[in-house]
Amino acid sequence: MSHHHSHPHSHSHDHPGETMDVWKEFHENEITHSGAHHLLAILELIQTRGYARVSDVAKCLSITTGSASTNLKSLKQKGYVEEDDNKFLLLTAEGRALSEAILSRRKILISFLTEILGVSPTQAEIDSCKTEHLFSQETTTKMQQFAGRHQRAKQD
């Protein structure tokens, strides 16, 4: 008699927490690479200037205002972005959570590429930007753990 069926509901995920849910939704809603960039542009503009308009996002991403407008429309439909009466763009709570999840993932990737693999910071920035929305939460977490162990080993 084998006993390894005694725990059909063994939880391999200890505490998936908030970020997991954000990423699950992220994949379900299929936010594109350019969508991720638009969200981050709005977040950065609001943090640095206090506001973001379609034209600012376009400048920030070096695309036409028309393209930015079309791309932002789909983010509005998905409920990540709102536009007020003065044409200022705002991130919804969900949009903000998603942007922050992308940013934290990007930070992990950059530090992994530069510290572990020895990639130049400029290249690491480019690569992390291309891939930050492709990695699963699990992979990112493992990278973070590996980098943490690597740092400690270097200090010993």
Q: Which helices and strands appear, and what pairs or packs with what?
A:
Layout (H helix, E strand, L loop, with lengths): L16 H12 L4 H17 L4 H8 L3 H13 L3 E3 L5 E3 L1 H24 L4 H11 L5 H19 L1
Antiparallel strand pairs: 1-2
TL;DR?
This protein is mainly alpha-helical and 156 residues long. The chain has one domain (18-155): Orthogonal Bundle (Arc Repressor Mutant, subunit A).
Brief descriptors of the model:
two-stranded antiparallel sheet, 156 residues, Arc Repressor Mutant, subunit A, elongated, mainly alpha, 67% helix
What does this structure look like?
This protein is 67% helix and 4% strand. The chain is mainly alpha-helical and 156 residues long. A two-stranded antiparallel ribbon has the order 1-2. It starts with 16 loop residues before the first helix and ends with a helix. Residues 2-16 have low confidence and may be disordered.
Low-confidence stretches: 2-16
Global Rg: 19 Å
- The number of distinct β-strands equals 2
Strand content: under 5%
